[in-house]
Amino acid sequence: MTTAPPDSSAKNRGLLVETLLGVAASLSASSDFDTLLANILHGARAVMRCAACSISLPDTATSDLLIHSTQRDWRKEGPWRLPKGQGIAGRVFETREPVNTADAMQHAEHYKRIGAETGLSAQALLTIPLMDGASCRGVMQAMNPRDRAQFSAEDMHIFIAFGSLVSVTLGRRQAEEESRARAVQEAERRAELELARQVQATFLPEPDAEHGSLHVQAFLEQATGIGGDCYFFHAPQPHLLLAGVGDVTGKGSSAALDMARLTTQIELAASRCTPESFNTWLVELNNVLYEAMHADDNAVALTALLFDTAHRRVYAAAFAQHPPLCRDHATGTWREVACPRQGFFGQRRLSACNVITIPLAAGSHWLVHSDGITEAVATNGGQLARDGLVSLLESHDWTNPSAFDLSVDTWRKNLASGATDDATLLLIEDRTTPPLREFAALCTAESIRAARAFFELWGRFAGIPQDTLLTLLVGCDEILTNVIKHAYGLEKPPGPLWCGAEVSTSVVRFIIRHHGAGITQEQAAAQADARSREEGGLGLALVCRVFSRVHFSTNAERGSEIVLEKVLV
């Protein structure tokens, strides 16, 4: 074999450099992947001065190698498929070691099937891995050099250098494709989230509404933009308001879909909800949701309230969620309503559920929330918890119309790093003006009639049924008559009379105080048991029958006190 003159060798190296630069430029300018591969193959054939070149890239689905060759219009006919580990290319791809053979047909690992399909027998064959750091992106082969019998060591160095250029180009292109794919996925995700958020918003009522004497305010913040929390309120009848908070298990779009299902079913069934049917209404709603949700093992934490402003009552049920809180009219303190906490809603069939009845007069404000409010991590490192929420609520003046917004702002400021779960608050304020809390006058026939009217107002405010209220007023009449007749005496000047009223979640309490001759609890019990009674009053026995608890006491400073209690639940 003759050696090329120095000037000829330099000329060849110059041509090689120009060819590599031209190929590099074409690779950088390639607009699509097919064009890129075509430029790689044509550039490789020019650089290696050979009859044919191919590039084999792994099929991620099967791990086969897909062979793109200058011998085949693979853009129309598709690439050849080389089974995993087969042929010289398969070996090089697995071992990452180049192979240079002078007669591929005689090589033990040559894959003859592809050679037969090309119609060009492989003689000299140079196969190199396309290395990108520690990973192999594919294999390149140069076949049958034109002006020499086989590929030399210098050819291998050149081919490996060219392969490095190809590896960098493929890596850059893959990174660009992955970046574009991520951008497309992120754009699609944002579009889906925005669509889901808009759809979700259509299932939620406006967060500020009036319903007769009730004022409704809501706050909802989804941790991921969309989620499973929801609030709802509907007016089945002019004097009824159905309201509550739901928290669907899970997060994201699936939870949002179940939230939409929940709010839709509630809206469809709301018109059938009445105080008499509240229990069965909840059971039917639960069973409908169970049919729709149990296949995915989803469920709902739910607290539902039904306000009856005509009869001054609230009906409540809690499922895997905290019972509601209510704010006392007189003291301004917040307390939990004694509402039994049942299992998840929609997780199993029900035939009955626990519903409690509470006087609407027990609270000026009623609050329902999801776990995202109390389980939020505060700046001190611990969860806000139920006690923390109560403290937060009691730190604000609820006679201020902005108290709800201020409470939400305080909650947000107390968070260590934002909400980690969907969070919902629903506030229902009863703006009915309560009666005067006390009545005071000299004890006369006219004032005890005014005292009776005072107790009647409070009985109506407490939602006591008319027939029951009439019996309670008869009991009050008996006590007031005894005060004016026996405690002070008809012949003596009238003394002071004081009356008060309190309503809790289970009891209405009437209080009567005077400074006349009082009796103890034991004396009252003896009088109630006595067979004969003096004229002027129906007797303490009747008082004890119509009230759930009657208590007499005397005090040198405060005088005598009679407490009359009626259990309402």
Mean pLDDT equals: 86
Tally of contiguous helical segments:
15
What overall geometry do the principal axes of the alpha carbons give? rod-shaped
Q: Kindly report the spatial arrangement of strands forming the biggest sheet.
A: 3-2-1-6-5-4
Residues in helices, as a percent range: 25-40%
Describe the main β-sheet briefly. 6 strands, antiparallel
Proportion of strand residues? 25-35%
The CATH H-level superfamily of the largest domain is: PPM-type phosphatase domain
Kindly state the number of beta strands: 23
Question: How many independent structural domains?
Answer: 3
Spans of 5+ residues with little confidence (pLDDT < 50)? 1-8, 531-538
User: N- to C-terminal separation?
Assistant: 112 Å
User: What is the CATH C level class of the largest domain, in words?
Assistant: Alpha Beta
**Gyration radius over CA:** 43 Å
What is the CATH architecture assignment of the largest domain? 4-Layer Sandwich
Look up the CATH topology of the largest domain: Phosphatase 2c, domain 1
Structural class: alpha+beta
